[in-house]
Amino acid sequence: MENEFNGLKTHRVVGLNGGPRKNWNTATLLSEALKGAASQGAETKLIHLYDLDYKGCVSCFYCKTKENYLKGVCAQKDGLTEVLELLSDSTGLIMGSPIYLSDVTGALRSFIERYLFINLAYDPVSPSVLENGPAVGLIYTMNIPREYLEPYGYASLFKSHANLLTRLRGPMIKQLTCCDTLQFTDYGKYHAPLFDENHKKEVREKRFPEDLAAAYQMGVELAQNK
């Protein structure tokens, strides 16, 4: 296996599901994106963050000590340790999350804290210890209609995520937003009069296949930047 010490990485694209459900909107789109990556010869792996036991950054600054800052290694040993090691040797990363209370889930946010901080440098010459980070994909699933993205501030939120991830110095950042999602298979079981079940199912039937196709293409493009 090639690694960063000789300037190369394994042609691998890792998908991280930041949502708790393993077979619903976010996970389905991630799986399709990884199929696209696999079509280009990439090794792929889907990881469900809710299966792992970990915390966000604890501000110990181990990764910023003079003997460690170029290694990109976190001092915490927990459910993210193997994930971070896998990513240090991968060419692509696709993160997916439903939107909870106007942002990504806590599980994904805690991962981002850990992953970004070990690779950030307190250095005016370069903001990263990486010379060539992974190509990054971001998949968001959310309940609101697409026309609300701008007035409700989500467009700015997603732009800020992308700007933050540029510090990884990867070749590209791709984003996909899946809106007006189907939340339940049976709306009759829940008190949710705000939503029209027939409308939700119609969007799922007509629009979701387009989102799946876009996710597949995202995987193709990320895998091509190996």
Order of helices and strands: EHEHEHEHEHH
The name CATH uses for the topology is: Rossmann fold
Which CATH class? Alpha Beta
Radius of gyration: 18 Å
Overall number of domains: 1
Largest sheet: 5 strands, parallel
Q: Strand fraction band?
A: 15-25%
Distance between the termini: 15 Å
The strands making up the biggest β-sheet line up spatially as 2-1-3-4-5
Shape summary: globular
Q: Please name the fourth-level CATH homologous superfamily.
A: Flavodoxin domain
Number of E-type strands: 5
Catalogue the unreliable spans.
1-6
- The helix/strand class is alpha/beta
Shape-level CATH architecture: 3-Layer(aba) Sandwich
**Helical proportion?**
25-40%
Mean of the pLDDT scores?
A: 92
Number of helices: 6
